[in-house]
Amino acid sequence: MDIRLQDVDFSYAGDAGFRLRIGRLDIPASQSLALTGPSGSGKTTLLRLLAGILSPQHGQIFVGDQSLPALTDPQRRAFRIRRVGFVFQDFRLLDYLDVRENILLPYRINDALPLDAAVQTRLDELAAALGLTGRLGHNAQALSQGEKQRVAVARALLPGPRLLLADEPTGNLDGDNARRIMELLLHHARAAGATLVTATHDLALAGRFDRTVDFNTFAHAA
Amino acid sequence: MRHRLLLAWRHLLHHRIRSGILLACLTLSFCLPLASHWLVREFEHRLHSRAHATGATPLVIGARGSPFDLVLHTLNFRPLENGVFSAAELARLRAGGLATPVPIYLADYKTKRGLSFPIVGTTLDYFEFRQLPLAAGEGLVLLGDCVLGAHAATALQVAPGGSITPDPRSLADLSSLPLKLSVAGVLAPTHTADDNAIFVDLKTAWVLAGHGHGHDPAARDAAVRLSATNSNASTNTVVFNEALPIAARITPDNIATFHFHGDLAQLPLTAIIARPHSEMDSVILQGDRTYLDAKSGLQALVPAQVAGQMLELVFSVKRYVDANYIVVAAGTLLFLALIILLSQRLRREEMDTLFQLGCSRGTMFWLQACELLIIIAASAVLAAGLAWVAASRVDQLMRGAGL
What is the ipTM of this complex? Predict the structure, then answer.
């Protein structure tokens, strides 16, 4: 799913100190893109704009042939459910659910995603691929940091998103786990033909992506 | 909805302590007002059924003191402290001809597993007056016989032909041997205090209270035959032989040896149910100087009036308690609101995650609403369970309250 941003201008209500302006950014379908740059440069904001969580005050964001700013809130939510997978830096697993239920969470909270036997089969395959088979019945709290992020990746991948967004997915991981998680993201995104956009501070990991955008020079955040 | 309920259930299970506190608060808030309302209704029903309904008690005569205590004692055999008066009043009423008097003397109890069954000394007139049908056996025939209320018979696990022994008055009382009573009959259930009573003849009650006794068969020739009926009690001859051992049970062999020391007219009663022959007789009896004069030590009461005053008192207390419940309920609701508010803050990140995963605001609301619904439903079930337990023990509770 290709992405095109043009003349995007965004600022948070009540926060005059931040403003993100992007002249033009094109991301071809199935490309992996790393967003680098210092904290506060607007990487996370861009990911949230691409997910349809935020909407710019000006400019256009096309994901596929869909203009996100033109959508209503429910439409953007529907878009997010069907098209977007999100991986967070702090995993965002629910501590009262076991690993299986955490991975199934998008299906539990969205009626648009029917939970059937095929999904359960896909979950088992995904868990096997991510080395989580033996951990499915464990509580999320009992997992290591690396395992937690793998669960978060599985949760993002299970619905088969065409756009995978990851916000500092290795920020809380050590070097080995960080490399492993990034490889998993790249591998599964390529295997699924999904576009992968990742915010990261790690320039070495960013080098493994098809393309890197440095927010120091690319976007203007003030 | 199934998914929301599952997530809500998992969340509640994970936060067991918080859920438990909430559950307990709501259960008590549901249960207490219901239970008190129900108990007061039962109290009212029981009091009215004896005071007003069929077989109602027209007039009660007893020692001066609390009218409530005397009425509860007469209607429900609740213990009465310092409430005895002499049986001479019984003879006076009989002689007056204005009413049929039914004597009551209650001094002994049989207890089992914490339950206390009053041993009520009376005459056959009581059974006729209350229209108490026998479910098994026969009525009081001999001295030493007893007839049990339905619940008392079940609880004490005795049937006609069996026997029961009243509890000693106190552990320090070594002067008398408890008299074993023969179970002559068991009454059909009436759902009144009669169900829990052990009825004996008035003279048997006096013997139990130590006002008379008998001796073993060796003293048969020296004994006095006591009338099995109550009409000719004054014909008893007083016989006393200290050398003979006191009989522990009245049998055909020793019945003749049972006797009372002193004048029967001076033996104690705790109440008299007076059945006036007419409304006029009732008015005359109530106006009897004996009952109006404080020095006489006696009073005549209309139970329906006393019950009405009692209920008025109970209802005024209940109104106060109900007002308290409203405050408690308001406090619980505020507590609930506080928990929801704090929960919203604590779960902000969780809700933000759900939102970013595509969850609608409505679904987020329902997730939390389902948690509340589960707690409320569980509280309602628990409250109903507690109410059921209270209902199954209402008889015991009512008897504890003297009903």
Answer: 0.84
